[in-house]
Design a protein that fits this description.
heterodimer; A: 112 residues; mainly alpha; Helix Hairpins; B: 512 residues; two-stranded antiparallel ribbon; globular
């Protein structure tokens, strides 16, 4: 059970970063931390104590296999995460060119 | 197996790649090709609406048959509710794409615009057609990543700031949804919506699934901009190019937000009274707070964006009232009426809010400003824009004989019949404030006298923009036909049937 709590703490670390950090790059890094804690949670769901890779061999019937589906989902989610991170980073670079700063307090054109 | 279903995803997805490849050699290819493929999707969706909407049809990706009645492959499902949302996605998509032909000329790199447009449509079609949770997540990410890029398409200060806000909040929403999906998979050991329903029907841990429901509701609520999660919407929707604002406000928040909430809460989770009351409260809050935030705005697109929050509140409130009645198991005919009102308003909102954003785009296109104080007297120079925006404004504020009146009327009648008098009163009040806010828009934009000598230079917008606006205003009038009970039953009936009966969706899918 402790690993799930550690995974949750990692998520909260990311959330803390997103809420408190003022540097755009640090916000992006915090989002990545949250993202990876989510992926870690998925791989933990699929894990079985003493399980082996799910390749069925009729000659040697093994009782426990790890669940392969969460791993497939995590692979898909990593690809999506790459796309979001790339998108976020390119926006941050453009923001830096326009405003000349990474400080989120300076970027406040839109209000109301 | 219905072979038409995967085409809704494949055609725009392939179109996006073709535009990027062929567009390099043929300038102007993307411009007409996007409209052509979206027109074909409109034809497919309307065909599906009139032929097979009463029945539920299925496409098993890769041909994986169920084992022991447990679905193992990816299912794409088309039922009555899906078809209605597909129709609005593709019709608004086609009209926005056609409008873009002249509107987007002032931006550079048109091909990227049209490719992203197609990707966004593919994602939304995928979300509504998908029959399992993880594919909903994947298609949702496809459409919102395209939307992030499209919001930033102007790459000026405001656009970049808006898209950054949208992306950070959108990422948080995605993680919440992903964790929710993880929790469901942990206990239920399946991702198929129908199969989860089957697993849940044989008893479940209520506290555990309450956490899951909260995660899912806040994740998709953030995508749908229900009130405590609305901070990104006015910035993102007002900064995007106008046809994209029409797409975002008209269909994206519905397809990836409201649709998924309705689908999961009616067809997957067991409806509990607490959650229904929570959803109704959120709807009522969005309705009231959204309109009060809107009334002080002077930027047209921000005003329209805040009204989107408010009008989505009507949909959530009405569907939530239906949920309460279904959860209590009383008065099914009133619950039917409430859900019908909600779905009717969802369709109407797509049409009139899309039209209003296109009008705002037309005004911005001709006079180059979005500030209401700098406009005035446009009614003479731009008669078609003025007339269509008048229809849309009257429609959103609930003036007969336009469609908004009838859907609001149904919602209010359903609330009164269900004895939710407070909700009915709030709905009437919000409608009146909406009317005030749109009278201000009409007066300042079209009828006020302007003191600048620019009347000579203002001309009516070019044909593609006019065409889209006129078609949408015709739809505003035609959709009021849905108020007639017979027509409503044929079009909206299948959708309401599938939502009202808690097990109909799952038993039909498991049965095939």
């Amino acid at each position: 059970m402790i690993v799930y709590w550690l995974c949750f703490i990692l998520f909260l670390v990311g959330l803390y970063g997103v809420i408190t950090k003022r540097n755009l790059i640090k916000i992006a890094i915090s989002l990545s931390i949250m993202e990876f804690s989510t992926f870690l949670f998925f791989t933990l769901i699929g894990f079985r104590e003493g399980g082996v890779a799910p390749i069925v061999d009729p000659a040697d019937p093994v009782k426990t296999y790890v669940d392969p589906l969460p791993q497939a989902m995590v692979l898909t989610a990593i690809v999506i995460g790459l796309a979001t991170t790339a998108m976020l980073m390119s926006v941050i670079i453009r923001l830096y060119r326009k405003y000349g700063t990474f400080d989120i307090r300076e970027i406040k054109n839109l209000k109301g | 197996m219905n072979p038409l279903i995967p085409l809704f995803v494949i055609i725009p997805l392939a179109g996006a790649f073709l535009i990027m490849i062929i567009g390099k050699f043929l300038s102007g290819f993307g411009r007409y090709f996007t409209s052509a493929i979206l027109l074909s999707l409109v034809v497919f969706s309307i065909y599906s609406l009139f032929t097979g909407s009463g029945t539920l049809s299925l496409y098993k990706v890769g041909g994986w048959e169920p084992v022991n009645r447990i679905p193992i492959g990816i299912y794409m499902v088309m039922d009555g509710f899906t078809v209605i949302v597909l129709c609005i996605i593709n019709i608004i998509g086609f009209l926005s794409a056609f409008y873009s032909i002249s509107y987007i000329k002032r931006y550079t790199s048109e091909n990227f615009y049209y490719a992203l447009f197609c990707l966004m449509t593919a994602g939304m079609n995928g979300v509504v057609l998908s029959g399992d949770l993880f594919n909903i997540f994947v298609f949702m990410e496809i459409s919102v990543i395209a939307a992030y890029a499209l919001v930033a398409f102007g790459v000026e200060k405001n656009e970049l700031e808006a898209t950054f806000k949208y992306q950070v909040l959108g990422c948080l929403a995605s993680f919440m949804i992903l964790i929710g999906i993880g929790f469901i998979y942990w206990k239920a050991k399946t991702l198929n919506i129908a199969d989860i329903k089957e697993v849940l029907s044989s008893g479940y841990d209520r506290t555990y699934y309450l956490v899951v429901q909260i995660l899912i509701l806040s994740g998709f609520g953030l995508k749908a901009a229900i009130i405590p999660f609305h901070a990104w919407l006015p910035d993102a929707h007002s900064s995007a190019p106008s046809p994209i604002s029409a797409m975002l406000s008209g269909v994206l928040i519905k397809a990836v937000g409201i649709y998924v909430i309705i689908r999961l809460f009616f067809n997957m989770f067991e409806l509990s009274e607490n959650m229904s009351v929570l959803i109704t409260t959120l709807g009522a809050l969005s309705m009231v707070i959204g309109v009060f935030l809107a009334i002080g705005q002077w930027d047209i697109k921000r005003l329209l964006a805040y009204h989107s929050i408010s009008q989505m509140g009507y949909v959530v409130l009405s569907v939530g009232a239906g949920m309460i009645l279904v959860a209590q198991g009383e008065k099914p005919e009133i619950a039917t009426l409430a859900i019908a009102g909600g779905i009717f308003h969802l369709v109407n909102h797509a049409v009139f809010k899309g039209l209003l954003f296109l009008n705002a785009g037309a005004i911005e296109y001709t006079i180059g400003t979005r500030d209401l104080k700098e406009m005035g007297g446009l009614a003479k120079q731009m008669p078609a824009t003025s007339a269509t925006s008048f229809i849309a404004s009257m429609s959103i504020s609930g003036i007969p004989p336009f469609n908004g009146f009838f859907s609001k009327l149904i919602i209010i009648i359903a609330c009164v019949m269900a004895k939710f008098y407070l909700l009915a009163a709030l709905a009437v009040l919000v409608s009146i404030i909406t009317l005030a806010s749109f009278l201000k828009f009409q007066r300042y934009a079209f009828y006020n006298k302007t003191d600048r000598g620019r009347e000579k230079t203002i001309k009516e917008v070019p044909f593609p923009m006019l065409f889209s606006m006129v078609i949408m205003s015709l739809l505003c009038v035609l959709l009021s036909l849905l108020a007639i009970p017979d027509i409503r039953d044929t079009i909206l009936g299948p959708a309401i049937d599938i939502l009202m009966d808690p097990v109909k969706y799952s038993t039909q899918i498991i049965g095939i």
